[in-house]
């Protein structure tokens, strides 16, 4: 027994002080704001309300974005200008090309399958007797960390030599079906696909909840009219429900795509990026924080950023269209 | 409603579809719960059983123990010591959550109800910040916090040399910064739905914006605050990347996720520790999730893009 409560007290104390001090400052701010001048324009009030978050966002996000972009055209220490060398390096190194290919695999499979499974499940359990429980089952992985989920699945993929008892579920199923157990996480590109399964497992619940809400918002009279026209369940889904909820499906697809592009925890926990499973976010971390290659790490971050931008633009256009339609 | 008369063929087909549909739903539900169940069952099996037989054989051989938890939580020999990391996770998640929720509400209020030129452009700017991936901010922010900043020879931010519990501060700051764009966006949606007449009546009675925010707006958006707090808490609790970079790996500040990822890397075969450890990290999110599921779903529905 080595747990020492005394060593933990300072943490909780600092937690309490931090929160109390923050709330005191905000409380004071709310008093000060009403003491200030009141004019037609709320300059003073805006300054009081916006300064805390404004400073944090400018210093913590805006400045870093500019700085990272600048670093991406500099050398490893961030001092000398190297032009586009870091980007050229990316496109000429076989390892990094592999990283880009893996990221592509992730973005191709994870959003599509997670959205499809979530949608199918939402339709299947809609208005069934056990809907609430059934939904919780799919939704539950959303609460688990990517690290926790990775450990859960690493255990599912565990390998024991043929002839001994398997302890991993996947190999046991293979053995039951008469096959040979395998070391699933060693062979590319299968290992990357097996890592993608973990993200699908996490994100399907999100896809299900959002799409289920959209399905419930489809007006009853439209469904009724289709049914009177003699449409069966299958046709009803493809010709009525899906077109009606398409904007939501698109939002879910894109949201998961953005998440997928930034995936890091799963790869790091399950393989550490070994066996040809690395992705951009993982490589960025390695270059910048393990090898001290600030230039290359920053260039990878910029690539990630550039890949995310079009997705978000589509997202914004989509949101605006649905708002106008309302 | 009376069902339209059906031919017998149609009836058979419908029965088959609904049976196939139920079967499909059950298969998915099983695939989504069995891996977690396997982890839970394994975490209470003795080490030698975990290593030599599948967890599904527990029914034939129900030997259960809490030893794994005892070891992984409290033993000092480097086998986990997760109790300390558990406290760290709390010490990181709670303040970050409070900071994000309060600052988001404050900022959203200003962006909706204060009158000053450029207000809408500011909101568009905050909205746009949501798309910045964490990765874009990590290197400069870490340098800023660890090395300080000088502008034109004047030190505007000193280098932080923090010891002990004070090392949580940069982690709080980083999480707050990364949580704000989504938080402000979500709160903006809620604050903008408040009736204009309400705010204007209070203004006419002579209330200042500080008082309106504290006395009228905060109570009215309380459910939204809970939703955001929940999302933010889970997000910070489950985060690995920010913690790795701003907290490092020491037992003084690193959260559970960092320790678990490390154990998965260095002690990948010690399933008795990994399974128990993973469950220790999951128990708080699962409890929060099960008790407040409705708020969680609402938060997700309100805005689903996280930067």
Automatic annotation (TrEMBL), chain A:
Transmembrane annotation, as ranges: 12-32, 44-66, 104-125, 137-156, 193-215, 236-258, 299-317
BP GO terms, sorted: transmembrane transport
Keyword Calcium tagged: no
Keywords, alphabetical: Cell membrane, Membrane, Transmembrane, Transmembrane helix, Transport
Source organism of the structure: Halostreptopolyspora alba
Its membrane topology: Multi-pass membrane protein
Matching Pfam families: BPD_transp_1 (PF00528)
Annotated compartments: Cell membrane
A cellular component term, taken from the record's GO annotations: plasma membrane
Protein name, UniProt field: Sugar ABC transporter permease
